[in-house]
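BUG: 3D viewer hangs when loading the predicted structure for this chain

Environment: internal workstation, default settings.
Expected: structure renders.
Actual: progress bar stalls at 90%.

Input used:
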Amino acid sequence: MAETVTNAAAIGEDYLQPGRFIDSDHPAIAAFAVRATASASDPVAAAVKLYYAVRDEILYDPYVPAEDPDTYRASAVLAKGRGYCVGKASLLAAAARVRGIPARVAFADVRNHLATPRLLELIGTDIFVYHGITELWLDGRWIKATPTFNLTLCEKFRIRPLDFDGRADAVFHPFDRDGRRHMEYLRQRGSYADVPVDVLMPAMLEAYPRLAEFGKAPRGDFAREAEEQAQGSSHG
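Structure tokens produced before the viewer hung:
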């Protein structure tokens, strides 16, 4: 196990302990964290390596069932190799805790100007409530990390991949590679030691009345949709 962050006591043990969804005590999470950070020499380097491991090894999939608790559980997301923003944020937080880096999940409402037509049809809006990110305690302050979109998806969608250096916040780019509006932050929803499903789910059901039908819809292929949309835009 790597070194424990010396100032963790100043921010509370909740951000180092396993939770119901940020289940950092799961053996698979521990193995993932140790493998990903094998050559890291300090917490910042470890955080960076964990970020890229979660960003690129776990595929972004917005078509996961919102009513399934495993959608938000770090170990389940790792096992499936795919997840949406909250699940990936949960996994990064869990892996960071394994390495002794205090971590939590935070949420914001965003407007995604480049969501695919099928996804927009299913949820009925381009506003995504409770978009999940990870916050990591590094060098005495909380740093935002957003491991949502894997590199291959960014290439298909023609959006700039979001990099992370462990020192500056990594939040979505407002524009894509072609100058189109991409992501707009609308409202901050706070930070939590564990995924607040009891808060998140009612908010999602209110925002997306068709959410109960969402899990019954045929599974989409978001990467293919993104590629087709980018090709259509370039030909337009």
